[in-house]
Specification:
Elements lengths: L1 H6 L3 E6 L11 H17 L5 E9 L2 E8 L21 H7 L5 H11 L3 E8 L3 E9 L28 E6 L3 H13 L2 E6 L2 H11 L8 E5 L7 H10 L6 E5 L4 H10 L3 E4 L4 H26 L1
Helix pairs in contact: 2-4, 6-7
Length: about 300
């Protein structure tokens, strides 16, 4: 995270108050995910100054305090920002691009680990302080289940693989890195587009190339042009490549909205790695089948 802060001209400071226990029983992956989300948002919404993480322990609980010198918020917005894709106002959305799912997912994870995530203090124009509190011994890790998948050869416990070229349309830097890592380690070639408008241009420019896209993975909530608009634009331009919608809303209405826009499939955040790769492999095979059928008809 320090590299991201440095690129913006910010300092990322880390401090410890008092003594800390040597061991903590919890789900380290989920704790890391919470901290990356909260610190990432602090960096995103801090134009200048610093972000500081302070760690302390009291009453057998760990306290992570993340403070910044960023844009801050009013009291009535403190709970709103924990709603998926919420924003304090539209001007903030245009300037910074939205909070996305990070804080909503982070609070859910903190709750599942037996802890809490709150905004302790925030002042417009002066910054915010988020506090994550976790018990030293948490049984919450058991609630997340275990990843089970097989390779195409059926080796138990291994992750699935796929081959092909994927256009990943996603505005969040952290999600770009995570999803790109999932896709590339599975064997896929990935091209990134930071929002729907760039995604449309990138796909249209690839037409007729020797290495066309086999699949598009489309985040649905983005600034500039969202995934629904981008998908509709692609379909109007006779894009026949399968599109997998990525969204936080696990509801029949949301699935229907994605399909109505022209998406072929729909997966929800937080993304399960095995599910993502399995869906990609399925739709890449379908994409190549469609392309072969079109070539046969043309012949």
């Amino acid at each position: 995270m320090r590299e991201r802060a440095t690129r913006k001209g910010l300092s990322l400071e880390i401090g410890v108050i008092g003594e800390l226990p040597r061991f903590v029983t919890t789900d380290k992956t989920r704790v890391k995910q919470i901290l990356v989300n909260v610190i990432g948002n602090a960096i995103k919404f801090t134009p200048e100054g610093s972000v500081r993480l302070t760690l302390s322990e009291s009453d057998r609980k760990l306290r992570f305090e993340i403070s910044d010198t960023g844009i801050g918020m009013t009291d009535d917005k403190r709970e709103l920002i924990f709603e998926p894709f919420a924003q304090a106002d539209t001007s903030t959305t245009r300037r910074f691009g939205g909070t996305g799912l990070g804080l909503a997912i982070s609070r859910r994870l903190a709750d599942a680990l037996g802890g809490s995530l709150v905004v302790e203090d925030s002042t417009p124009g002066r910054g915010s302080t988020f506090v994550l509190v976790l018990p030293l011994e948490s049984g919450g890790a058991e609630r997340f289940g275990r990843l089970r998948a097989t390779t195409r050869e059926g080796e138990p416990g291994a992750l699935p693989t796929a081959e092909g070229r994927v256009l990943l349309v996603e505005d969040g830097v952290d999600n770009q890195r995570l999803l790109s890592h999932f896709l590339r380690t599975a064997g896929l070639k990935v091209t990134l587009a930071e929002h729907g408008q760039v995604g449309v241009k990138t796909y249209l420019a690839s037409r007729g190339s020797a290495d066309p896209f086999d699949l598009i993975v489309m985040d649905m909530q983005m600034p500039v042009m969202n995934g629904y608009e981008a998908t509709e634009t692609l379909r109007r331009n006779r894009c026949r490549v399968p599109i997998i919608a990525v969204t936080a809303h696990a509801s029949p209405d949301e699935r229907g909205r994605c399909i109505a826009a022209g998406c072929d499939d729909y997966i929800t955040k937080p993304i399960d790695r095995a599910t993502l790769i399995e869906r990609c492999a399925h739709w890449i095979a379908e994409s190549r089948k469609r392309a072969a059928e079109e070539r046969d008809r043309a012949a």
